[in-house]
Amino acid sequence: MELQSSSMLDVGKWPVFALLPPEELRLIRQACVFGSAANEAIYFTVNDEVFALGTNCSGCLGLGDTQSTIEPRRIDILCGKKIVSLSYGTGPHVVIATADGEVYAWGHNGYSQLGNGTTNHGLTPALVSTNLISKRVTEVACGSHHTIALTTEGEVYAWGYNNSGQVGSGSTANQPTPRRVSSCLQNKVVVNIACGQLCSMAVLDNGETYGWGYNCNGQLGLGNNGNQQTPCRIAALQGINIVQVACGYAHTLALTDEGFVYSWGANSYGQLGTGNKSNQAVPTLINMDKERIVEVAACHTSHTSAAKTQSGQVLMWGQCRGQAVAYPHLTHFTSTDDVFACFATPAVTWHLLSVDGDDYLTVAQSLKREFDSTEISDLKFLVDGKCIHVHKALLKIRCEHFRALLNETDEETIEIHQFSYLVYRAFLEYLYTDTINLPPEDAIGLLDLATYYRESRLKRLCQETIKRGITEENAITLLSAAVKYEARDLEEFCFKFCVNHLTAVTQTQAFADMDHDLLKNFISKASRHGAFKS
């Protein structure tokens, strides 16, 4: 069954979704965009179906082959499973945790990052079972080629690429299957995990933070630049309660329980938000202008940082479309996801995008839903014997003509004679949705109406629709309409089209039936354009 589109996920800012039809977009509840050029995507629908599209590098779409696909294809093995966490590497490899606590992995496996004991790429999602079979995993995080997983008991398991100790095993040998990260995490309860390219971070239930792996930029926050093969506590955060960490390519952000943000690591793009470009090997407090922060965001594929304040404002800094922004910059975005869609390179999702579970409707969605609905409508238009149900208040707000008309009448039904049902309905629908949905020939009637009601934006939209639908067959009809409704821009466009396709256009029925004055005008104008020179 299809749910209302109310709680649809807005993936519009990610170009990889641009070809999906609206009816498909309406079903998306979770999505992830990844890959070296943000050209891989996986999404989960309201019906618990899973689809993938993109270039399918290293089989990272989990479709059983390495064919690229511009149209979504279903990942059958994952359908019906509810996803609670998803992460990806740069290979790319992809890892998910399901609501049942199972872990599935697929894609690039050159360093055993799929945890199946081999280095063969995985073309379809496979259960990661070694040492996890009796565990319930709640969160997964991937670095470039390693994976870590957090269980309900607060244990961390790691596997894959280990050149810098990022698996936390005490060596630099790659780890072919999941291994519990113990040493000083033994008997500790981890509540949050994150990975940079080559390092791993964990936050404990008592607010302590531990890091391990690559540290040449100071991204472990230990005050030095030495790699660590086992977890080390960040001593500089002693007495500070951390609730969330996020890792960029080589920098780390940490959020405290009081809404402060600390940063450390690489800073050549200003990603630490300190106002300069010097690396920091110890946590540094970022000046947020007394705003309390509730979320920090970073992604191991980029040098971009973002944060959300308690009042819902979104800040960004670091590498933003090639620019180095060294201080947190206030944006007009409503979520940190938008920062990555619009400013990160590549423009991937920093975590699994999920729609809010509630059925909240935006103002625009609410209005759209009420158009031509009898439920609370207080006015109907009768056109060609058919009814269109609307709301007086909305028409007054949206259209000067109706503001005047409805202030003078208390009628509950208004008959319309000069426009067709199709055209008038499209006009009223436009007032509710800001868009028009008509074939070009019918848009002419709407152009007439827009001219009559002095709706200049609607007139512009009609002209665009008509331009997109011009053919040799209808060019003269459209030209005549443009002249009649004084749509100069459209007239010029149709005229040029007619001149460029003169032979075909002059053989159409519409040309034969052309109004005498218009024909005379057309021929003299065309000859001025040199159309009849042999």
What distinguishing features does this structure have?
534 residues, alpha+beta, Methylamine Dehydrogenase, Chain H, Potassium Channel Kv1.1, Chain A, 2 domains, 5-stranded antiparallel beta sheet, 4-stranded antiparallel beta sheet, 13 helices, disordered N terminus
Description:
This protein is α+β, with helices and mostly antiparallel strands and 534 residues long. The protein has two domains: 11-354, 7 Propeller (Methylamine Dehydrogenase, Chain H); 363-529, Potassium Channel Kv1.1, Chain A, CATH 3.30.710.10. The protein contains 13 helices and 28 strands. The strands form seven sheets. The chain has a five-stranded antiparallel β-sheet, with no helix packed on it. A hairpin with a 2-residue loop joins β26 and β27. α7 packs antiparallel against α8 (456-468) and α9 (475-484) runs antiparallel to α10 (488-500). The radius of gyration is 30 Å and the shape is elongated. The chain starts with 21 loop residues before the first helix and ends in a 6-residue tail after the last helix. Mean pLDDT is 93; it is low at 1-6. RCC repeats lie at residues 48-99, 101-153, 154-206, 207-258, 259-310. It holds the Pfam family RCC1.
Low-pLDDT residue intervals, each spanning 5 or more residues = 1-6
Binned strand content:
25-35%
CATH architecture of the largest domain: 7 Propeller
Cα end-to-end separation: 64 Å
Radius of gyration: 30 Å
Q: Which structural category do the helix and sheet elements fall into? A: alpha+beta
Q: Indicate the CATH class of the largest domain.
A: Mainly Beta
Largest sheet: 5 strands, antiparallel
Strand neighbour order, sheet with most strands: 4-3-2-1-25
CATH superfamily of the largest domain: Regulator of chromosome condensation 1/beta-lactamase-inhibitor protein II
The count of DSSP E runs of length 2 or more, i.e. the number of strands, is 28
Which shape, going by the Cα principal axes? elongated
Mean pLDDT, to the nearest integer, reads 93
Give the number of helices: 13
